[in-house]
Design a protein that fits this description.
- The protein is mainly α.
- It is built from 3 helices and no strands.
- The chain has a domain of 42 residues.
- The protein is 37% helix and 0% strand.
- It is elongated, with a radius of gyration of 28 Å.
Length: 76
């Protein structure tokens, strides 16, 4: 009777070899490039709705960040 779970010499070493996988994803940012601080503001319902309409499908956080940096004279 043959053993159905036996391996021949060509496939025997496959199970014992260590598999090394490449690291996936984007590289980590440097500490100086990481955004760590959050800024928030309270608006009335009227102000908030006007702001959302003004954004016209733009991302709120990106728009606010660019506006703050522009007002402070920072270059992106």
């Amino acid at each position: 009777m043959s053993d159905d779970f036996s391996f021949d010499d060509t496939t025997k070493d496959i199970l014992t070899k260590k598999v090394t996988q490449k690291k996936t994803g984007r590289p980590a940012k440097k500490d100086t490039q990481k955004r760590k601080r959050c800024v928030s503001a309270y608006l009335t319902d009227e102000e908030y709705n006007a702001f959302v309409n003004f954004l016209d499908d733009r991302t709120m956080s990106i728009y606010l960040r660019k506006m703050i940096l522009k007002e402070m004279g920072f270059k992106e």
